[in-house]
Amino acid sequence: MFRPFSLSAALAMTLPAASIAADADYALTIYSSAQPGQINVGALSNYGASGLPGYALVRDQRQMAVPKGRGEVRFTDVAKLIDPTTVSFASITDPEGTRVLEQNFQFDLVSSEKLMDRYIGQRISVERADGEQIQRVEGILLGTQGALLLQLDSGEVSSMLRYDNVRFPSLPGGLITRPTLVWLTDSARGGNHDAQVAYQTQGMTWWADYNVILNESATGCSMDLAAWVTIVNQSGGSFPQAKLKLVAGQVNRAPAAPAPTFKRMEVMSMAAPAESDGFQESQLFEYHLYTLGRRSDLPDNSTKQVELFPASIGVGCKKQLVFTASPFAYPMWGGEPNFDQNLGATNKGQVGAFLEFSNKTENRMGMPLPAGRVRVNQASVDGSLEFIGEDVIAHTPRNETLRIKLGNSFDVVGERKQVDFKLDTTNKTLDETFEIEVRNRKLVAAEVVLREYFYRWSSWELLQSTHKGEKRDQQTLDFVTQIPADGTAKVRYTVRYRW
Fold first, then answer.
1. Cα(395)–Cα(375) distance, integer angstroms
2. Where would I find the H helices in 239-291?
3. For a designed S-S bond to 351, which of 49, 96, 129, 409 qualifies (C-beta 3.0 to 4.6 A apart)?
């Protein structure tokens, strides 16, 4: 007897009981390879879930029905972007008496097209509206290309270009409504088990954002720094009230990652919760682990921001103006110096504005800083905070100094010009003299660093200079100048290259 069911009714009957397990206990460790400033939050859909630079280790602990002896356990509450090679299933109730003999990942999801293909040569029921009446036609489905071809009970073949509903007698075997993990287990103890499922999934990442409020005075500057993490979940799975951990550092991954062992995951899932509601930092191998001290919802297709650590108030900092007009020193001379007299002969440079601060405890900092974007704001004359620049930082351990560029100075300008050039090929020397002039059009005095790159050859020495230079590295020299309000500073030096 033909008992038709609509597609929605057929799908509703296929939900396995094991997949509707309540009170799941989720724990997520999220890894990220996102470069600072790489992802535009407003255009996350453009990246595609699998294109997000990160992944997560998901640990799901709940009660599951496990048959006694050999039997099948089905589990559908998994992220769509799961890596099935990393899946682990274990019984906490009876770990010694429960074994996994086989593990399968089924992802042939049901659709109207697949149902049509499966029912070619079988009987279906098709409905279409005719005015206020609904016509129902039953027959053998012969084809679906362009139109439904039905062989009616009379033997005639009907081509139906328009129809409103198709009813199928049942859902064919092998088609499922959600990605499903299926285990063949052998258990000495049947019934409800406390079990843990663990796997890795793509489509998740995180990164850090830092917000700075800069305070300047006649004697220096200080700043207030707040740190936040942004977590993105596009894995195809939702994780309510999950324990969250974030790993900062470059974790190497082989092309095919092995499934983590249950004992290791059990230790991780049973780690003592943090005392604070915020993130607590700890060491993990050569990386840093940030554990959120409370549970948090992480729905699918969501972006969440959480404070990384309490704001650091009154951090000491230094503003630095750096004038650069010489070409950068590229160590690619090809066996001899660059003799082109016109190279860098006369240039107008720019004065970059930088902010420098020490990540030390005595400077009210002293914590490992994950890579991220640093946005800096400053109060204007009316007291409102205005954006003045941003930069990105790499993973930075404590007791290191950070230096970020905010932009270029409006009121400090200058140029660099060549005033002498002497090439002596017999003695293999090249002497070059430059004069650098920087003008400060501010109403207050300014300290400006004049940065010179020695780009013609690796071996050089200063023959003479109007200012003392501070060597930064093999090819770089700084001249520190104090320029009065609406004043000018000139630096003149001669460099000799030998080869």
1. 16
2. 262-269
3. 409
pLDDT of the residue at 256:
47
Rg for the chain (alpha carbons), in Å? 34
Q: Pseudo-torsion of CA 149, 152, 157, 159, nearest 10°?
A: -40
Q: Tell me if residue 114 falls in helix, strand or coil.
A: helix
Chain centroid offset of residue 374 CA: 15
The full set of domain ranges for the chain reads: 14-104+177-308, 112-168, 325-498
- pTM score of the predicted model: 0.72
How far is it, in rounded angstroms, from Cα 81 to Cα 179?
9
Integer Cα distance of 361 and 114 in angstroms: 62
* Contact status, residue 435 vs residue 491, Cβ threshold 8 Å: yes
Answer yes or no: are the C-beta atoms of 30 and 244 closer than 8 Å: yes
Q: What is the pLDDT of residues 293-305, one digit of tens each?
A: 999 999 999 999 9
Residue 363: left if φ>0, alpha if ψ -120 to 50, beta else—which one? alpha
Topology given in CATH for the domain delimited by 112-168: SH3 type barrels. (2.30.30)
Closest CA to 75 of 185, 194, 178: 178
How far out from the chain centre does Cα 17 lie? Answer: 36
Architecture of domain 14-104+177-308: Sandwich (2.60)
